[in-house]
Amino acid sequence: MRRTAIFFLTVIPFLLTAQEIKQDIFIYDKKQMPISDINLYYIVSKDTIALKTDVHGKFTVQGKNNEVAKVVVNHHQYSYFEEEFKISPQPKSIFLEKVFSLDEITIKAKKQNISRAFGTTTLNIDDSPIFQNSTFKDAIMLIPEVNIVNENVKILGKNKTLYLINGRESNRNINDLLANQIEKIEVISNPSAKYQANYDSVINIVLKKNQNNGWYFNLNSNTYINRLTSYFNAVDIGVNLKKWSIESSVRYNFDNGLVFSNGWQNYQDKLEDYHTRFKVNKQYLETSTHINYNIGKNSNVGIDFSYGTHLDFLFCLNFLSPKTIKAR
Questions:
Q1: Domain boundary residue, one of 138, 172, 207
Q2: What's this model's pTM, rounded to 2 decimal places?
Q3: How far apart are CA 122 and CA 144, in angstroms?
Q4: Are 186 and 204 in contact (CB under 8 A)?
Q5: Residues 123, 175 within the same domain
Q6: How far apart (Å, rounded) are the C-alpha atoms in residues 277 and 287?
Q7: CA-CA distance, 69 to 71, in Å (whole number)?
């Protein structure tokens, strides 16, 4: 009787271990929603079985109790998942993390606005948003060789710059040109001998040509509000007659600036704190007329008439507060 009991105690655990059982496994996302119709691999012993989840996110595996098996999920919408587990009658849950995805993106190629050739850097101005409501200075600052110091344009640190409009010298105030009037800006940092020797750089501004014959009219007005209000207005009117073009413009700028300056200075045995307030009103009025005749595709002749005047007013307040200090 004792031997029989020992036999059953030895055989029963073996039979339970060797018995084939089924286990239900559920696959969910991070929101605990079942994932249906997802392909996966169930690996047990040396067998690899392809399975698919049902509408409830469930699939069923079969194997020996406590046998080590593996589940592998490799789906493009979810992160790669691989896990080993022991087969048991208890249901099992797997949670997959969804891969972040973007909506379809369409990329359109666009030519660069800046090009270089034979020592000349050219900025082509188009209808890009970056040029909207921009001035000549705003546009030329996009050229790497250009730097603006105290409102003066410098090419690689050089100060003597020759300004050309459509390839010829002009007394027109280029600082008040708007970007939408310009076709391209050419910067020559090392000019050849054909330019005047007393200039170490050249800026050539090529204005846009109206391709349509007839009259055209352009009105532009910008208002800036910082500490005080400033505004810049321009009116252009012109006519194209085949090879002839005539353009007249009137510009009025009012720059109402307000600047504060604070500091201190040590003078002999006194330390002075100073506070300065500048209020600068700059007004500029310009009228100009440009007559141009196109000889060919790359050549033209013309004449410019321009008149401009500056009206500057400076109002300054200084406050000094001397303090006596011990002399060293």
A1: 207
A2: 0.43
A3: 11
A4: yes
A5: yes
A6: 33
A7: 7
Bridge partners of 61?
23
Using one digit for the tens of pLDDT, what is the confidence trace for 243-272? 777 777 777 777 776 666 666 656 556 566
Is residue 205 a contact partner of residue 165, using CB atoms and an 8 Å limit? yes
Does a structural domain hold residue 303? yes
Check residue 325 and give its pLDDT: 38
Distance CA 27, CA 133 (A): 57
What phi and psi values does residue 210 have, to the nearest 5 degrees? -75, 115
Whether residues 80 and 128 share a domain: the answer is no
Q: Which residues contact 214 (CB under 8 A, 6 or more apart)?
A: 239, 240
Q: Confirm whether 122 is domain-assigned.
A: yes
Using the predicted structure, report yes or no on whether residue 75 has a pLDDT greater than 90: no
Q: Write the DSSP string, 70-95.
A: EEEE--TTB--EEEEEE--SS-EEEE
Strand partners, 315: 279
Instruction: Determine, yes or no, domain membership for 8.
Output: no
Nearest to 253 by CA among 130, 124, 137, 132: 137
Q: Is residue 53 part of a domain?
A: yes
What's the N-to-C CA distance of the chain in angstroms? 116
